[in-house]
Write a structure and sequence with these properties.
Layout lengths: L1 H85 L10 H4 L1
């Protein structure tokens, strides 16, 4: 009887070790898969980040150009207003109907 229990215990230990090894392999496979997935996501994220940085840089450049145009146009408007205000007022010809008759 005791011998049967020892044999059964030995069989259970062998099965448990087999299950442990299978579980260990499965966990390692999952870890490898997760590492690959994370690396792929990291690479994609870096690519997106680089793209967005370029977009931001272009937009900043365009904003600066627009600001320069605004300054230039403001200056032109101010100069035009000054020219109009400083120009001597010419008398407009009268269209006096009382003189015609």
């Amino acid at each position: 009887m005791e011998e049967d229990v020892r044999v059964e215990l030995s069989d259970i230990e062998i099965k448990v070790k087999g299950l442990e090894q299978e579980l260990h392999r499965s966990v390692l496979e999952d870890i490898r898969y997760m590492e690959k997935t994370m690396m792929k996501m990291k690479t994609e994220g870096e690519g997106e980040t680089d793209f967005l940085k370029k977009q931001v840089s272009q937009l900043i450049s365009e904003k600066i150009k627009i600001q320069q145009h605004v300054i230039s146009l403001t200056s032109r408007v101010n100069n035009t207003e000054t020219d109009v205000c400083e120009r001597p007022h010419e008398e407009e010809p009268r269209n006096d109907l009382s003189q015609a008759g």
